[in-house]
Amino acid sequence: MLRAAFVALSLLAAEPAVAQVQPFPAAFVERDVPTNGTTLHVRVGGKGPPVVLLHGYGETGDMWAPLAAELMRDHKVIVPDLRGLGLSGRPPGGYDKKTQARDIAGLLDWLKVGGVDLVTHDIGNMVGYAFAAQYRDRVKRFVLMDAPLPGIGPWEEVLKSPLLWHFRFGGPDMERLVAGRERIYLDRFWNEFSATPAKFSEPSRAHYARLYALPGAMHSGFAQFAAFDQDGVDNRAFLAAGKLTMPVLAIGGEKSFGPTMAVVMRAAATDVTEAVVPDSGHWLMEEQPAATVRLVRAFLDRPL
């Protein structure tokens, strides 16, 4: 807890007041929770049925502030930073998504939370799927946003896209190339995967670039991608045990995955609703936050 507070205060002191992402409501509590051999930094706020929000690469749990502010009115909202990212611990291994799903299970056990709704983006989709597949009785509804699942559906076709060269970019020499140049590397994601790059604001870019420049953060980020081959093996084993049966909402950005997000999930689940956010690329919460929040809210409000 003290480490996380010190890092957070250091970040605030290092950047001007304007260089901030939207803050979480003041009622949210932040803490560091030991789980599955690491520590997850988590924000918790609100009361009601619990919902877990899992972020992706190039961001942290901070991305969810607009959605968290909406959902906390009638949900208990749980927003961790994934293993190795943000203010969470950076263990040497465990970046396969099956292991990270167990991180989330341990976090929920610590919070004494059982069943949850699950909302995920990017790498968070992969951790979320591994969680839903291992703990099927704990996920009531599942929302996934704009990223594939290793080994599931059109994965091999997805891998052929030249835009996804970063899936194989990693290792010590790659880390040397980006050391001190984290912002340059991350701008590539925020620019190339946006419909309108300016909508991923300069304050947000400055904030995340500082977090990813923390010691070990880029190494952990590369490890998320390096685990994809193992994730594919694990996902195919999950799928062999049966498709997910909880209601699933598959959201794609019009200028990114679009309806392909639903194609991916129909290969993995039996009850899939498709949604496409107009005039958005990959960064749905930055490019079209209001439309995205409306979609998620409407889905979570549906009776089971």
Instruction: Note the gap between the termini.
Output: 37 Å
Label the CATH architecture.
Answer: 3-Layer(aba) Sandwich
**Total separate domains:** 1
Largest sheet data: 8 strands, mixed
Question: Would you give an account of this structure?
Answer:
The structure is a single chain. This protein has 304 residues and is α/β, with parallel strands linked by helices. It has one domain (2-116, 126-138, 147-244): Rossmann fold (3-Layer(aba) Sandwich). 42% of the residues lie in helices and 16% in strands. It contains 13 helices and eight strands. The protein has an eight-stranded mixed sheet, sandwiched between helices. The longest helix is centred in the middle third of the chain and has 14 residues, at 97-110. Residues 1-19 have low confidence and may be disordered.
List the helices and strands and how they pair.
Layout (H helix, E strand, L loop, with lengths): L1 H13 L14 E7 L2 E8 L4 E5 L10 H7 L4 E5 L16 H14 L5 E6 L1 H12 L4 E7 L9 H5 L12 H7 L3 H11 L9 H11 L4 H10 L1 H13 L7 E6 L6 H7 L5 E6 L6 H4 L1 H13 L3
Parallel strand pairs: 3-4, 3-5, 5-6, 6-7, 7-8
Antiparallel strand pairs: 1-2, 2-4
Helix pairs in contact: 2-13, 3-4, 4-10, 7-8
